[in-house]
Amino acid sequence: MIQKVLVKADYLLKWGEELEVISQGELVIEEGFVSYSGPTLQRNNENFTRIIKGENKLVMPGFINTHTHAAMSLFRGYADDMPLQEWLEKRIWPVEAKLKKKDIYWGTLLAICEMIRGGTTCFADMYFHMEEAAKACLESGIRASLSQGLVGMDALQGIASLEEGKKIVRNWHGKGDGRITAMLGPHAPYTCPPDYLRKVAEVADSLQVPIHIHLAETRREVEESVQKYGKRPVELMEQIGLLDRKVLAAHCVHLTQEEIQTMAQKKTAIAHNPGSNLKLGSGLAPLADFLKNGVLVSLGTDSAASNNNLDMLEEVRLAALLSKGLLEDPTLIPAVEALKLATFNGAKALFLEEKVGTLNEGSRADLIMFKLNSSHLHPLHGIPAQLVYAALSSDVEMVMVNGNILLENGDLKTLDEERILFETGKISSRLVNY
Q: Which of 32, 180, 316, 422 could bridge to 402 as Cys pair (CB 3.0-4.6 Å)?
């Protein structure tokens, strides 16, 4: 029997050339795809497997988190108020050395619980033992783009991690009815020397997958790159040819105007992580300049160890507000643009624009439903602005990926949250002995 679902709502948001806000809209979903998306129609004698009535509700594309280290949810609150390098070298890397493979599975599930509850339907992850993360994604029903973290400072370590990265691509790319895709994930230019990055680029070409990398996150990273190679990180990546591939570059906080233009010309996607960059004191990426120059920008949370949450709506709000305040211009990053970063642009940044991020006919049914009958959302003078400036992630009432419901009426449908909290509690106690 063909699964045919009708979703009705007071408001439907979908992307075309611009954001379209439809009053009294509906979606028809057949076998995980959107077959109709628009105003409510008069329907007679149509057989639906289920009808979801969204009175006082809004339906829109799910949020796409383009940069995470999901299993680091295990370290939430463990190392706070520290500079990035000290945070990594003195707190995070030593405890990461204690991680077991199965820890990654449970830590990823913990992150997925939080992301689903906040309306995230797809995320890009870079970490270790990604086979375990892939299993968590497969079981949960979420969409994910996975990258094994590659480090090439040591030759043998570099070869081994690249083999792991290739294995993730070969074993998982396209799995879960297309929900799981893969990239190669060289950590950063300061952990992956130029010759190693050239090798990664060659392998990416042979496997026909994109590259996910941290780039120009801190001033120290830029200064050390100049000292060691005579070039800033973006210049170095351009020289070795990395930016001639499909690349998702996380952070990009410290870029010159020339480098911003390079990113636009090379069509390099940026994952902007305002919450993490603020908390780690890394600086603020010049988002308004990125957009003015035509750079493709999406949004990410980074890890719950550095943020400390995976709340995409919070990132949307930060993205909208920071440029306004810093540049003293309230017209910058309007609400519609901020929503676009977290949905439509996220799909493009993960090279999934033909599948998700729009809710147009033919797209995958990755959607979220907000409840609107709360005091903090009343009255509804402007839908995009209310979502960006007033809504809470707890207003998300339903989440659907590939036409399958992952959250409904506040209940997770595919995950045993109580078990996940129990298991991750045990792991955290083992990893961090106060």
A: 32
Are residue 74 and residue 199 in the same domain, yes or no? yes
Nearest CA to 250 among 211, 286, 214? Answer: 214
Query: Closest Cα partner for 128 from 106, 159, 161?
Result: 161
- Looking at residue 17, the DSSP 8-state letter turns out to be S
For the chain, what is the domain count?
2
pLDDT reported for residue 356 = 96
The tokens describing 279, both together, are: 């908390």
**In whole angstroms, what is the distance from residue 251 CA to residue 230 CA?**
21
345 lies in the same domain as 296: yes
Tell me the CA distances in angstroms from 258 to 180, 227, 230, 262, one per residue in order: 35, 20, 16, 6
Please spell the DSSP secondary structure of 196-231, one letter per residue: HHHHHHHHHHHHT--EEEEES-SHHHHHHHHHHHSS
> Is residue 131 domain-shared with residue 215, that is, in the same domain?
yes
Domain assignment present for residue 418? The answer is no
pLDDT in tens, 10-21: 999 999 889 999
pLDDT tens, residue by residue, 350-362: 999 888 999 999 9
**270/325 same-domain check:** yes
> 72 and 48 in one domain?
no
105 pLDDT higher than 90:
yes
**Cα gap 409→419, rounded to integer Å:** 20
Residues 6+ apart with CB under 8 A from 386: 377, 380
**Per-residue pLDDT at 86:** 86
Residue 427: inside a domain: no
